[in-house]
Amino acid sequence: MSTYKNFTVETDADGIALVTWDMPDKSMNVFTMEVMDEIDAIVDVTVADAAVKGVVFTSGKSSFSGGADLTMIKSMFSMLAEEQARDPATAAQKLFDAAGRMSWLWRKVETNGKPWVSAINGTCMGGAFELSLACHGRVAANSKSVKIALPEVKVGIFPGAGGTQRVPRLANAQDALQMMTTGSSLTAQRAKAMGLVHQVVEPAELINAAKQMIKDGLKAVAPWDEKGFKVPGGGIWTPAAAQLWPAAPAILRRESAGNYPGALAILKCVYEGLQLPFDTGLKVEQRYFTEILRTTEAFSMIRSLFVSMQELGKGARRPAGIPKTEFSKIGVVGAGFMGASIAYVTAAAGIPVILVDQTQEAAEKGKAHSEKLVADQVGKGRMTKEEGEKLLALITPTPDYKALSDASLVVEAVFEDRAVKKAVIEAVEAVIPETTIFASNTSTLPITGLAENSKRADQFIGVHFFSPVEKMMLTEVILGEKSGDKALAVALDFVAAIKKTPIVVNDTRGFYVNRCVFRYINEAYDMLIEGVPAAMIENAAKMAGMPVGPLSLNDEVAVDLSQKIMKASIADLGPNAVKPEHMALVDQLVDVFDRRGRKNSKGFYEYPAKPAKKFLWPELKTLYPQKKASEVDVSVLKQRLLVTIALEAARTVEEGIVTDPREADVGSILGFGFAPYTGGTLSYIDGMGVKNFVALCEKLAASYGPHFKPTPLLKDMAAKGETFYGRFDPYAKVGEAA
Ligand code: NAD
């Protein structure tokens, strides 16, 4: 048995070498330079060893592999930046070589002369599936944990290690494009149906089945290396392809509005590659991959959606020196809309929950939400009946506060009313020990003010969930003036336990996410009042990369909730806190037309009974004199919607609300879907350059109002040629703290 750092290789009596990938210091296997060097060496050793007849490649962990390691990607970008400053031509060549390293290594596996079989035991993503595709056989375990995907497009790049060449040579072109341009996951069965894996077997049989393929005489030659190979469906010059290819760029444009260069590159790689010999196809892919790696979109998306998201998820903002909390019980007070969902996600993470409401009946109603979700999951085969019962048994509904006495954290989600919250804080503190942390899920009340009702303000913190809690991956953790390190650590441990990504922000009205969201909605109000047709506003938002138009989003949030928040802002901050025209628009919708949003099926949209689709309320156009479509510049609408949000994000940094640019970026994408191709609000500014952003703001301010005026911080950064990631370098801070 030869041993490597990340692999073990054991050759059995039949001459089959079992290569098991099990990185010693990681919970999931990922590709590093070292891992690739070791695979390279394993190929050489197994080829040289006459006793080895073939190789089975598998993982020693519960998953197969998550793909590339973020430190490798980070080092590739810093190498590029350094080299770019010295000599752009060398930088391009070095990036080209680095971009091709994995691709040509997998090609070496494919052409090594001995059969390789990939035994896929769990999640198999990105480069790991591309390695599997280069193996001559692929066997996957019949298990829910097997998720196969080439998800690179989601971080602005594309499968650049042979994926764009091998998938369409195994599956039909339409399925191949669908899989790669969406980055969606396949089950083992679906991968088999598409022709991407050869066999699906019971987990216990996986290695035997893989070995059996070799014993049965699996050829060590890829289909495309055989004479007479034909692409499934016949390739590019067929009647079927003539139907697919002219439509493909149009479909992609409909889905992504041309904002994702990585997705378009997939189409180019497949279209060109299928007309070329395999090795030339790989070279075409390598060239496009290099080109895409140099785009602002790829850089920003990888940074925010891959690197920063993982770093925040792993507790980048967690104070050091406080032991990790193992939650044996969590309290949720208020079993309404939010509390019921918070209880569900907590129980789904295996943590017992005490769910408190004013009466037993109300608490049980909250639990009923989980019962419904569990029944749905069981019905869809995503959960067994036993798993469902176990989950539900973790939730104890009760009106009795005393049941909270041994919870390590209590999350409050009662009515958004200061007096009600005060009473609840006092009632909870009367029963919990000194060590328990109290978290409020308030969305509008500043935490510092609420904490004044607490006897231990250092143990008090905000944990702001987003609806629907089951789906939304973000949780905003809000530090009141007196919130202590332990409160922060426990809150972050909780967010990690329920598998959400946290951002930590300082206290302010609306915190970070809602401040940005209201700017987005307010800009749409301005546009409506100017007479821009509502459909143009909604479409411009989608073309700018927003998942949901601002009017549709306002309907989801509820128009009367906006009204309530606007009124509260005026009451607390004075009449200038809200534009009178905005207040008039919302008052008219709610008070005159009873249009409260999705919840009463009437808002900016009409919501007819299903299966009919929602449509914009036709009477909207009677509220303000309408402009003709030809009088409206859609590119300016797009800019206004993104710039107003990004400016608000910059203000939160200037005010010290958000202190880490990673959090502004990740929070904006996970919280409200801010045009992901930009990498988030601050990356959007950095990506175009602060100087250009300031110039754009000044231009918009001249035509659309002073809310677009660039702030002093932005002007200062523009003058100094700074970026947010440079001036507020999150890694420098780590260094200072250490
Ligand atoms: P909700 O009205 O659906 O639920 C509130 C629940 O609190 C009710 O079940 C009520 O019976 C219970 N309650 C009231 N007083 C209580 C008391 N003294 N003891 C125990 N239970 C009591 O409201 P919601 O939408 O779930 O909002 C709850 C909190 O979450 C609010 O602070 C809100 O701002 C915040 N929030 C809401 C959303 C959202 O989208 N609805 C999003 C984020 C945060």
From TrEMBL:
UniProt-listed SUPFAM superfamilies: 6-phosphogluconate dehydrogenase C-terminal domain-like, ClpP/crotonase, NAD(P)-binding Rossmann-fold domains
Biological or metabolic pathway of the protein: Lipid metabolism; fatty acid beta-oxidation
Domain 3-hydroxyacyl-CoA dehydrogenase C-terminal, first and last residues per copy: 510-607
Source organism (scientific name): Neorhizobium galegae bv. orientalis str. HAMBI 540
3-hydroxyacyl-CoA dehydrogenase NAD binding domain sequence ranges: 329-508
BP-aspect Gene Ontology terms: fatty acid beta-oxidation
InterPro entries: 3-OHacyl-CoA_DH_NAD-bd (IPR006176), 3HC_DH_C (IPR006108), 6-PGluconate_DH-like_C_sf (IPR008927), ClpP/crotonase-like_dom_sf (IPR029045), Enoyl-CoA_hydra/iso (IPR001753), FA_oxidation_alpha_subunit (IPR050136), NAD(P)-bd_dom_sf (IPR036291)
Lipid metabolism keyword on record: yes
Gene3D superfamilies, alphabetized: 1.10.1040.50, 2-enoyl-CoA Hydratase, Chain A, domain 1 (3.90.226.10), NAD(P)-binding Rossmann-like Domain (3.40.50.720)
Record protein name field: 3-hydroxyacyl-CoA dehydrogenase
CDD domains: crotonase-like
